[in-house]
Write a structure and sequence with these properties.
Helices cover about 40% and strands about 15% of the residues. It is α/β, with parallel strands linked by helices.
């Protein structure tokens, strides 16, 4: 069992100033056997909560004592109780789960009820930021959703997870994943092999997301039978995509005509998600991004939702957020 820190521990992450410690909250837990998972190895989970919320947290017996700003302590209590509830149900938790609950608790005060999730056969994908929750709910309610923002915010992964969820429940008959085949600032030259060999390098991130949310054998079988189709954008022309979950990734690299062509493929019973980062356009100079244009044109259209992610929504790791922030900072 993890070594508990006593109330006099010298590892406190906050200055020991009485004026900062305006609240003291005691959070009890019934089953001591679950506390090891809750606190993490060497109290690492507790330390993460301390660091993110700027409080002191100490485990003593079957309680956790929180000291610090009242609203931060209330958020920490909500996070701990929800983590404990998940563990009691047999779920495994990690730093990502804690980070997600903290972000929601910060945005919503003492409640994390707003955290959305997607269940697939292989895993349950829980929103890690309030914007991810908004995005998940938008996909559920709308037939066309745009997800805009920097890398690492989960735009594509969540869309693929939702597509898998819909396919497994019979809400759609197939999944169609597409990307424009545009080189990201370099010249790859001639690519050997058949058509799939040539386009796979551009579509690999979509395959990676599929294999993470669905069993590998199902992915392979569904690709062979056409239930899952991963194809470059050029293959969409002339088609009507009915009863399908359709995703266009890296859409900032579409031209105006390509975007209009793609959006008008949507048929009856289909959902469409378009993702992209308008700050990373790899089109030739002077070519207008179809994604940027489409968002401007469709912003006020009913049944379409546009969700914008910020650098603060990056969940890949803290360093990615710092890199994006540094690039966006005025020179």
């Amino acid at each position: 069992m993890a070594a508990f820190r006593g109330s006099s521990a010298s590892t406190s992450r906050r200055p020991n100033k009485p004026e900062l410690e305006d609240a003291r909250v005691v959070v009890p837990f019934e089953d001591n056997r679950l506390l090891t998972q809750l606190l993490g190895e060497y109290d690492s989970h507790l330390a993460l909560i301390e660091d993110r919320l700027g409080i002191d947290a100490h485990a003593h017996g079957n309680v956790v004592i929180l000291t610090g700003a009242a609203n931060a302590c209330a958020s920490a209590r909500s996070v701990l109780e929800r983590l404990y509830s998940r563990i009691a149900k047999g779920e495994t938790i990690g730093p990502g789960d804690i980070d997600g609950l903290i972000r929601h608790a910060r945005a919503e005060g003492t409640s994390s009820d707003g955290q959305a999730q997607i269940a697939t056969r292989r895993r349950v994908v829980k929103a890690r930021t309030p914007t991810q929750s908004t995005y998940m709910r938008a996909i559920e309610k709308k037939d066309l959703v745009f997800g805009l923002g920097p890398a690492g915010t989960g735009k594509t992964y969540i869309a693929v997870a939702f597509a898998a969820h819909c396919l497994e429940r019979g809400l759609v008959e197939r999944i169609i994943l597409s990307r424009p085949a545009v080189e990201a600032g370099e010249r790859l030259g001639f690519l050997p092999g058949d058509m799939r060999d040539k386009v796979d390098p551009y579509l690999r991130p979509l395959y990676d997301a599929l294999y993470d949310v669905l069993p590998p054998e199902k992915v392979e079988r569904d690709i062979e039978t056409g239930v899952i189709e991963v194809a470059p954008l050029a293959f969409m022309r002339g088609r009507t995509l009915a009863n399908a979950f359709v995703i266009l990734d890296e859409a900032q690299n579409t031209t105006s005509m390509q975007m209009k062509m793609f959006l008008t493929r949507i048929g009856e019973g289909s959902k469409m998600v378009v993702t992209g980062d308008p700050s990373q356009i790899d089109l030739p100079p002077g070519t207008k991004s179809g994604l940027v244009e489409a968002v401007d044109i469709l912003d006020a259209v009913d049944d379409i939702s546009i969700v914008r992610f910020e650098a603060s929504d990056i969940v890949r790791r803290d360093l990615v957020a710092k890199i994006v922030d540094a690039y966006e900072r005025p020179k």
